[in-house]
Design brief:
Elements: E1 10-13, H1 34-44, E2 65-68, H2 81-95, H3 103-133, H4 146-177, E3 180-182, H5 190-204, E4 211-213, E5 227-235, E6 241-247, E7 255-258, E8 265-269, H6 270-276, H7 278-281, E9 285-297, H8 310-322, E10 326-332, H9 337-347, E11 354-357, H10 388-392, H11 397-403, E12 406-410, H12 416-427, E13 431-438, H13 446-456, E14 460-465, H14 473-486, E15 489-491, E16 498-499, E17 502-510, E18 513-521, E19 533-540, H15 543-558, E20 568-571, H16 575-591, E21 597-602, H17 608-620, E22 623-628, E23 645-650, E24 655-656, E25 659-663, E26 675-679, H18 685-689, E27 691-698, H19 701-717, E28 722-725, E29 731-733, H20 747-753
Parallel strand pairs: 1-2, 3-8, 10-11, 13-14, 14-15, 16-27, 19-24, 21-22, 22-23
Antiparallel strand pairs: 4-6, 5-6, 5-9, 7-8, 9-10, 12-19, 13-17, 17-18, 18-19, 20-27, 21-25, 23-28, 25-26, 26-27, 28-29
Length: 776
């Protein structure tokens, strides 16, 4: 299909947007209200300019915009990575205010936005802070120094945290109307207090460690994400003043259930219970002043480049992470001066690293209120499907794969098929060897259990465990120890590269030959996240991909670069150059007058070389439609630079995680002659240069149709959950998504109602289902 658009360009001034404010998109000018930002956005679009259209499958490209004071060859052509990430987290937060989302799911989105922001500070902001302190002035791709980025981050993150509290204040009465009441200690009745005191003494008191602060008791170490009450107390008899800390333990439930006779479920934040029961902790003292605070510490790992024992080095580094420098202190708004000064001095934080919280501390813990007993306030239950073809073969994964390649779309098709593939391999007497990469797994991973079972049964099992999976390092160390005890070979890969590729290979004796069955994934081998992440799993017995898998595993274990790969590109060796070559080939089709389209889907797009290749393709006439969930460094829709590029972000019930790219190959899109790829890699420098990643070309016709005309088409057509990126880095909703009574197309609902084509059994893949779904 082709899309025509007018050559008329709207002119707007250059102002780099940061994040997306309430219901619209953000400005780099934090003093503006949401209404002022909306008005400015409308003015910038030009009189009568249409609002953004999210249906990229059917709608023509929008009119390009001419940016004033803009150099298309300079750093202005890139959007800032950190501000773009904040924009993504604004979009997550706005789902907490979306009336189309069930109430407890809105609470969950609010919690996720806070957890995301905490991690952003402990890693990204911590790194920029270190660079700024060292006097580093090296600019980012968009031309900003670390100090300049920190200033903009600080402004926007503070606005985001204020918005979190505003949304929480709006959600509380809605929760109360639905029978979930959040109390404070002053709202407790005498009977409530009596019952809670018993609960406190039995279930909370034994875990607490009240700490006096005086010359004999120095200020204690507060770990990353540590939450404390700072207290100023006076002794009743002597009047002597005492400063004290009361760490709020993570091991105790965040919201304490208040017993009630009615149908309501009532909760008290744990810190409120502690303040109500101070007499039990400091008998004889009276509370004079108090505040709450929480700290975030630098959580990036530092490793010696030549570690003799990588596992031991990581164990030491994890202990160092716990003691990283404080990068942010959140403290109760209006905290008493002496207590505030004490905390700041002892934690060695500057004023610009302090955030005053007017409301609930630790918004990230609100997920505890998503109650199993209130399924009526959550998304309707959905049970992932078992592919019909697997059922046709009575659960035999090898037989189903032998019939033809099979692509499963998680979570709509159950991740249990990946587990079954390995469990069946472990118990099959004809299976000789299993090789497996492990980047993230669950604590009690069924994948690891299957590998252990296979090793204990005498099969050759090699597990390639990535210790550098951020925040999962400790879990991966435990899993590697378990695998070694079972007799598996455990390989830790490269010191300088993360092994992020998702590959399983099972070698099976069939008659007089060996057949290799492989699994190539876009996500992690993690059965818990597979319930909420959308990812792809390709199962195949294609001999070329089997040989390619063996070569990659040999590269990981022996460091010898493969001399040839038949149907695969890998980072850090060939993936980036292959991607740029494919983009260039599509540009050549456009210059030759042939249809030229690129459709792609990923989590992040930030690599400057890839972005420049896309800009060049746009100028050549390639029409490029991108679905980028998170970080985006490309300015779409700019006249003379990217007028043939449009970008949307899909934020909804499931977290979009799959990486796909489709090239029209001179025939446009959709086309059965397109070149289609799935990948483990986002288009970021770290993925393309500093990780081991895969780019797998799809050759099976049914799987190609499934990806192009089902998965990509539905993502491009989505309106209900889509935000359309603007040239200045803002993201706007399609207005039809919020119209009362409208039923905009929702790709997640579509996938829940329609099975994947390549998993069809005897019914076959006769046609691609129409892009429709049931009513909300």
């Amino acid at each position: 299909m082709t899309h025509d658009h007018s050559s008329t360009a709207t002119t707007v001034s250059m102002r780099d947007g940061a994040a997306d404010p309430p219901g619209t998109a953000a400005s780099a000018e934090p003093e503006r209200t949401a209404a002022e930002q909306t008005a400015a956005e409308q003015a910038a679009r030009g009189t009568g300019a249409p609002p953004p259209v999210a249906d990229f499958l059917h709608a023509p490209f929008a009119e390009p915009v001419t940016l004033t004071d803009f150099d298309p060859t300079g750093p202005d052509r890139f959007l800032n990575r950190e501000l773009s990430w904040l924009g993504f987290n604004w979009r997550v937060l706005e789902e907490a205010a979306n009336p189309r989302v069930p109430l407890l799911e809105r609470v969950r989105f609010l919690s996720i936005s806070a957890t995301n922001l905490d991690e952003f500070y402990t890693v990204r902001v911590a790194g920029l802070r270190e660079l700024a302190r060292e006097g580093n002035t090296t600019p980012s791709a968009d031309g900003r120094t670390p100090s300049e980025q920190l200033e903009l981050i600080n402004e926007d993150a503070r606005a985001l945290m204020e918005r979190q509290q505003t949304i929480w204040r709006a959600l509380k009465p809605e929760l109360a109307e639905s029978g979930i009441v959040i109390l404070n200690r002053r709202e407790l009745t005498a009977e409530d207090q009596r019952r809670l005191q018993s609960h406190f003494l039995q279930n909370v008191f034994p875990v607490l460690s009240p700490l006096a602060i005086d010359p004999a008791h120095p200020f204690p170490f507060i770990p990353n994400t540590g939450f404390c009450l700072a207290l100023r107390l006076s002794h009743g008899a002597s009047g002597r003043m005492l400063n004290a800390l009361l760490p709020v333990p993570h091991q105790v439930e965040r919201f304490v259930r208040v017993p009630t006779e009615g149908a309501e479920e009532r909760f008290l934040p744990l810190e409120e219970l502690l303040l109500a029961e101070l007499d039990s902790l400091f008998p004889g003292y009276t509370l004079r002043d108090h505040c709450a605070f929480t700290v975030l510490r630098d959580s990036d790992l530092e490793l010696e480049e030549e570690a003799e024992d990588l596992v031991r080095e990581f164990e030491i580094a994890l202990k160092r992470r716990r003691r990283g420098e404080v990068v942010r202190l959140k403290i109760t708004a209006g905290a008493p001066g002496p207590l505030r000064d004490l905390v700041m001095r002892e934690l060695r934080v500057n004023a610009d690293e302090v955030v005053e919280v007017d409301g609930l501390m630790r918004i990230s813990t609100l997920g505890a209120l998503v109650l199993d007993s209130r399924r009526d306030l959550q998304w309707p239950a959905f049970s992932p499907r078992v592919p019909e073809r697997v059922q046709d073969h009575e659960g035999d994964m090898f037989a189903a794969i032998r019939q033809k390649d099979m692509l499963l779309h998680h979570p709509y098709e159950t991740f249990d098929m990946v587990v079954r593939f390995l469990e069946q391999a472990a118990r099959d007497p004809d299976v000789l060897a299993i090789k497996q990469t492990l980047y993230r797994t669950s604590r009690d991973s069924p994948i690891v259990a299957a590998l252990c079972e296979a090793a204990e049964a005498g099969k050759s099992v090699t597990a390639f465990v990535e210790l550098k999976a951020r925040f999962d390092e400790a879990a991966n160390i435990r899993q590697s120890r378990r695998l070694e005890r079972a007799g598996a070979h455990v390989v830790y890969g490269f010191i300088n590269y993360k092994t992020h590729a998702k590959i399983s290979a099972v070698v099976r004796r069939e008659g007089s030959k060996l057949v290799t069955y492989t699994h190539w994934g876009t996500g992690n081998y993690h059965p818990i996240t597979a319930r909420i992440y959308t990812d792809l799993s390709l199962f195949t017995s294609d001999p070329a991909l089997g040989r390619d898998a063996a070569r990659v595993f040999n590269y990981l274990s022996g460091y010898a670069e493969p001399a040839v790969l038949e149907n695969l590109s890998i980072a850090p060796l060939t993936l980036k150059s292959r991607l740029i070559d494919l983009i260039g080939a599509e540009a050549a089709h456009a210059r030759a007058g042939r249809p030229a389209h690129i459709w792609a889907k990923m989590n992040s797009l930030i690599d400057p070389d890839v972005i420049d290749a896309l800009y060049a393709a746009s100028r050549a006439g390639v029409q490029i439609s991108l679905v980028v969930r998170g970080i985006n460094g490309l300015r779409p829709g700019v006249a003379g630079l990217s007028e043939n590029i449009r970008i949307k972000s899909v934020i909804g019930r499931y977290l979009e995680h799959s990486r796909i790219v489709c090239f029209g190959n001179g025939h446009g899109l959709p086309s059965d002659r397109a070149r289609v790829f799935i990948s483990s890699a986002d288009w970021m420098g770290r993925n393309l240069v500093r990780r081991v990643e895969t780019l797998v070309e799809i050759r099976n016709p049914t799987v190609k149709t499934q990806i192009v005309e089902q998965i990509m088409a539905a993502n491009l057509a989505d309106v209900a959950q889509s935000w359309v990126m603007q040239p200045r880095g803002r993201a706007l909703r399609d207005e039809t998504a919020t119209e009362e009574g409208a039923t905009p197309f929702n790709c997640h609902r579509f996938f829940m109602e329609n099975p994947s084509l390549s998993g069809r059994g005897s019914a076959g893949a006769r046609d691609v289902p129409l892009l429709t779904h049931g009513a909300d």
